[in-house]
Design a protein that fits this description.
- By secondary structure, this protein is an all-alpha fold.
- Helix content is 78%, strand content 0%.
């Protein structure tokens, strides 16, 4: 299985930015969840928002996205490295 480095980085940054925008919108009201996973993730996000405030939580979520992007860049070889691996 191959890893696309650019896609992995952009997906990580988008994930962090999406959570940051969600945090800036404020804690979500509780509604009947579709599954336990959604309820658990929502409660975790709301707890971070309550603990750090909207701007603090948005900052933390964005930093998490940047860290995930960095890890993705380290784990996924670039296309140049993949070419060298195939030839070598």
């Amino acid at each position: 299985m191959q890893c696309n480095r650019k896609t992995a980085i952009w997906a990580s940054l988008a994930f962090g930015a999406g959570l940051a925008l969600y945090a800036l919108d404020g804690p979500a009201d509780y509604s009947p969840p579709t599954s336990r996973v959604v309820r658990g993730l929502g409660e975790t996000i709301n707890a971070v928002i309550y603990a750090l405030g909207e701007v603090g939580a948005a900052s933390v979520f964005f930093v998490i996205g940047v860290v995930m992007a960095g890890l993705s860049a380290l784990l996924c070889p670039s296309s140049r490295q993949r070419g060298e691996i195939r030839r070598g």
